[in-house]
Amino acid sequence: MKETLVGTITHYYDHIGVGVVKVSASLKVSDKIHIKGKPADFTQEVTSMQVEHQQIEKAKKGDAIGLKVAQEVKEGDEVYKVEE
Predict the structure, then answer these.
(1) C-alpha 46 chain-centroid distance
(2) Residue 77 φ/ψ, nearest 5 degrees
(3) Residue 9 in contact with residue 76, Cβ under 8 Å?
(4) C-alpha 21: how far from its chain's center?
(5) Which residues does the chain have with pLDDT short of 50?
(6) What is the pTM of this model?
(7) What is the pLDDT of residues 15-31, one digit of tens each?
(8) Distance CA 26, CA 57 (A)
(9) Are 64 and 58 within 8 A, CB to CB?
(10) DSSP assignment of 12-50, as one string?
(11) Domains of the chain and CATH, by start
């Protein structure tokens, strides 16, 4: 299983379960991701992404997106795309 770094968490909104990700490589809805940090270490499918409160299907390098996450994340956690 190959993992490619696609972004870094810059903020987390615990009341809505959304992490803000600074995207460093393309990412799309339905991609499988692995979030690694302390203590975060989990995989999930990308089910929802937003830019400026607008739903998007694909994010590109340089975007700052809101990503619905399954568990709590922290600033500095890394987001990897999992390719099987």
Answers:
(1) 7
(2) -60, 145
(3) yes
(4) 5
(5) none
(6) 0.95
(7) 999 999 999 999 999 99
(8) 11
(9) no
(10) EETTTTEEEEEESS-EETT-EEEEESSS-EEEEE---EE
(11) 2-83 (2.40.30.10)
